[in-house]
Amino acid sequence: MKRLYRSRKNRMLSGILGGIGEFFNIDPTIIRVAYILLMVLTAFFPFFILYFIFYFVIPEEDNY
Length: 64
Description:
Elements: H1 16-23, H2 28-41, H3 45-57
Helix pairs in contact: 1-2
Membrane topology: Single-pass membrane protein
Protein name: Phage shock protein PspC N-terminal domain-containing protein
Subcellular location: Cell membrane
């Protein structure tokens, strides 16, 4: 069973977008660029709040 975790290897801030990239087998850079584009297009606030919600909901990866 595959689970979503905050990445310890692909992290810029807290590993959320890196973990999403690892979960879907997509380069985390593509996820980061798409997230920033969506953040700019929605005037930052919704995706800024969503990032912090993800921080508290998605557990951190236990092992390397």
